[in-house]
Amino acid sequence: MALRQAGSMLVVFFWSVAVVMGQDGWSVTYTPQSICALRGSTVDLTCSYTYPSGTVTTTLWFTKMETGVETEDIGQDPENAGHVEYHGDKKNGHTLTITDLREKDSATYKFRLLTDQEGGTYTGSPGVTLSVTGLQVKVTGGHQDKTLTCITTCTLTDNPTYIWYKNGQHLDESTSPQYKSSVSSNYIDGYSCAVKGQEDLHSPAVCVQGQSCNRVTYTKRRICVLKGSTVAISCTYVGYNRVKSSLWFSPKQSASWTNKLTPEDLTRDPGYAGRVEYAGRESETYEGPSSLRITDLREEDSAEYRFAFKTQNFEWGHSFPGTTLSVTGNTTLYDTTVNHIELQEKINEPSC
């Protein structure tokens, strides 16, 4: 192991020298050169650059380069409006921020700069390789001896801490992606994992035995809307036994509740009086959809919202992350060449 580490360090050292020396005073250095991030999260791709002379007139990031075809700036792609943002600084550094990551964002990103001098164009290689993944719980082992592993399609950057939930209840935290404690073989039990600091990006809950365990799945993890508008926050749920009652709540509003007490039903919260209603909620069913509708939204409504249900002898845990709502009074103006109608549609988009 020591020899392999020493060899890796040596390769990195020579590569760094080659990048810094660049081509006739040109260079682009990426830090780091590969990133694995969760779907729905935000990531920063960072580089620093040097150039021989003149003034930098244009900087851009791109993922595709074809001979004879002008390089496409991803910041000018309409699909990326509000999704990517450039940040430059005074020390010849540049950061590309990508929010709400999607699987299709997985690519190698390269930085290009242009100056006002003849031949003043340079593209930095090798770029930053971004891989976007989701979390899944893998169940292995026999009937009485189950092992749970929180898996991804790439190795997450920065050695994360994993969080485990059982039936919506916080269980454990560990730097290992494998759940270390004994796993219940009860048919009602559903398990889920998340990464600390990004709990709202948790995996779907999986049944350890069979397919009918208790679980809740939120349609969206994050929602951004304008002040004064109406929003519908929805989920689907499954109860191993018949569901007797259910409710929506916000930890922000129910500050006094604990895992042993039922949180405050939003329909009974004076701050939401006349603005909240539930849809799709029926008693004495094993499963179904549920939706929380909030009208005349206020900025103070920005919070996390969770769904809870009860059966005759079970209550879905309250610590399982729900949907995070952001309410803003601002709109985003895009510097694009779209026509007037398209621009008016974009003006009404929220800035969060």
From TrEMBL:
InterPro entries: Ig-like_dom, Ig-like_dom_sf, Ig-like_fold, Ig_CD22, Ig_sub, Ig_V-set. Residues 126-209, 214-328 form the Ig-like domain. Residues 1-22 form the signal peptide. The keyword Signal applies. The keyword Lipoprotein does not apply. It comes from the Eukaryota. Keywords: Signal. PROSITE patterns: IG_LIKE. SMART domains: IG. It holds the Pfam family V-set. PANTHER family: B-CELL RECEPTOR CD22-RELATED, VASCULAR CELL ADHESION MOLECULE 1. This is Ig-like domain-containing protein.
